[in-house]
Batch of 3 targets.
Target 1
Amino acid sequence: MKILAVTFEDRTFRYDRIEREGMAAIYSQTHKASGIKRYEVVRIRIARAHTWPNGTETPEQESYPGANAWGRYGHTFHTHASAQNHFHALLAGRESATNEEHQGENV
């Protein structure tokens, strides 16, 4: 199985893993043009192997939550401290309580 990268990029952002425990992680998200940094707490999921219509195969791999899963499997915070609080609550099984506490902070 392919493991989620420690560092990766898309068109707009660079993501760097700060902390990981099991299937939960904190990544910093840095806007490439402005340098503005935010923090994302994610629940890593497993994407099954898939064969595309053209015959290309994608192996089983860990995946970062997509836009449609945001708010359920991923949350964005403006400060590292807020992200750490949510991360540790997630690990302790108290995620729903921290969602309410940080509701105004999620982007």
Target 2
Amino acid sequence: MGQITRAEIVSILSTDNPGARADDVAMYADAFLDYREASANIRQHGNIVLHPRTGAPIENPYLKVKAQASRALQAIRRLRNVDRLWKREEGEGNPAPAGKGKGKRKSREG
């Protein structure tokens, strides 16, 4: 499977969330791409990287990008049907942020 494009993400989200606001779809697509890019960078380079100028070990800046994108994805709660998008990505080795792409929540009752 190749890289998913922003247009494909918007298409999947729009199809699976009829009546969704265009701005919610656009924000989710952008945050999804940021999350995916950050995850790939962290997998490739690790949590600690060398500062490009000094060579000193530093925290990978993409950790903050990933955390911010994850918060943005979770904040856009009006888009309920995102599982198909995350399942496609998980098939490519990209983990979903907490609470996304894992199916329905279990009830705390009974």
Target 3
Amino acid sequence: MLPFAVFIIFLALQQYSPLSVTIDYPLRIVIIAAVLWVFSRNVIDLRCAQTIATVLVGIAVFAIWVAPDILFPAYYKGRNLADSYYLSIPSLSWQNIVVGDPLCSLGKP
């Protein structure tokens, strides 16, 4: 119960955080992992039985849950989809792909 409470506290305090996304998210991951490690040791067996499935579920959770938090702030502020994707990537690469109408926006900037 405590790890979930810590996660909810992070969500509630997100708008007041002075840290950038590149510092805030890794810090959250480390703190929540530490809380899970300390308080869930007696409940959860920390050995991974299905390694590939575990990694794939982790990637899916990141793509569905965490990544939109990085993309959508600029999109909600009126930027178009292409600008929002550009602002959300940590480094520019030829491998980045924008899927969708790049000129689509939610409103006036």
